[in-house]
Description:
Blueprint: E1 3-7, E2 13-18, E3 30-32, H1 42-48, E4 53-58, E5 62-67, H2 73-90, H3 112-134, E6 138-146, E7 151-158, H4 166-181, E8 187-191
Helix pairs in contact: 3-4
Amino acid sequence: MFIDTYDTPNPHSLKVVLGQAVLGGGSMGMDFPTLESAKVSPLASALFDIDGVVEVYLGADFLTVTKDPSVEWQHLKPAVLGTVADYLAAGIPVVDQGAAADSADTPDDYEGETKEIVEQIIDLIETRVRPAVAQDGGDIVFHRFVPGDGIVFLSMRGACSGCPSSTMTLKSGIENLLKHYVPEVTAVEAVG
């Protein structure tokens, strides 16, 4: 059984890599910001049972656990790793059958020229942004595009959610990238 951990730019989030897929390749991640939202995932629910865990994100091949700032990783990390190891040994599915990832707009939600713009935006996010932020235990997902205003709304998840560097990543990195390749984009905003 392989389990490894990595620090992230968010000091309150820990990336956990397993020797197996979590949600599987190509999957949209699933963010669980509360115990209530985690009820569709036995693994996320088990992690929320650990005192100090405040958020869980499940990605294609990793998971990210975010802690309460008042708790130290040296006290929390053994419990997180033990829970994940127990979970893997039990062979329980990561999410309940029928549980769906968060919904977001797709190009099919738009028409004409706007559809082509959204296709470009999503392609840039999928090929250039998501792989980079996944290395840090996070994820950024297209939410919607407002034609006319040129504003792109993105969801920040995992280690990106609440990260001190997230605003800089969003404005200096992603916004500049999208504005460079898609002139119709004027700004990028995060949605909660």
